[in-house]
């Protein structure tokens, strides 16, 4: 993945109160570690229980205009990963091939229904299938492709 590709960490869902605070849907448990978002256009002043205040948002009207805004940081700002770890943003869009080399499609979604991540792959004919993201179903992956064991394809 490109080090400067923007990665979404949260999205503004609406205004909160009249002083410019916004409600945010968090995709990380560590949003406060980052102070600058969207290429420096938003500076985080405070964060508490899904409510954020940005230096550039003085009132409710400005907060309302942010509804739907994704809060992004460059990929290079994220902490380094240990072996076997991944960021969802790194997997989305990856080409998928079987262990025998057959082209399977592209990763289009990653969900967690409680038992671990599930990868959704879209075939070239637009049909989709899901597989667990574990070492049995996905024995290897890198920046260019995700290898899938055909035994897990339904």
Describe this structure in words.
With 154 residues, this protein is mainly beta. It is elongated, with a radius of gyration of 19 Å. The relative contact order is 0.16. The protein contains two helices and twelve strands; from the N terminus they run E-E-E-E-E-H-E-H-E-E-E-E-E-E. Strands 3-4-5-2-1-6 form a six-stranded antiparallel β-sheet. It has helices at residues 60-65, 88-91, and strands at 6-16, 21-26, 36-37, 42-48, 51-54, 70-74, 95-98, 103-112, 117-122, 128-132, 140-141, 145-148.
Tell me the helix content: under 10%
Strand content: 35-45%
> What count of helical segments does DSSP give?
2
Query: Looking at the chains present, what oligomeric state does this protein adopt?
Result: single chain
* Intertermini distance: 29 Å
Poorly predicted runs of 5 or more residues: none
Which strand order spans the largest sheet, edge to edge or round the barrel? 3-4-5-2-1-6
Mean pLDDT: 93
Shape: elongated
| Order of H and E elements | EEEEEHEHEEEEEE
- Radius of gyration (CA) equals 19 Å
Class from helix and strand fractions = mainly beta
Would you report the number of β strands?
12
**Biggest sheet character:** 6 strands, antiparallel
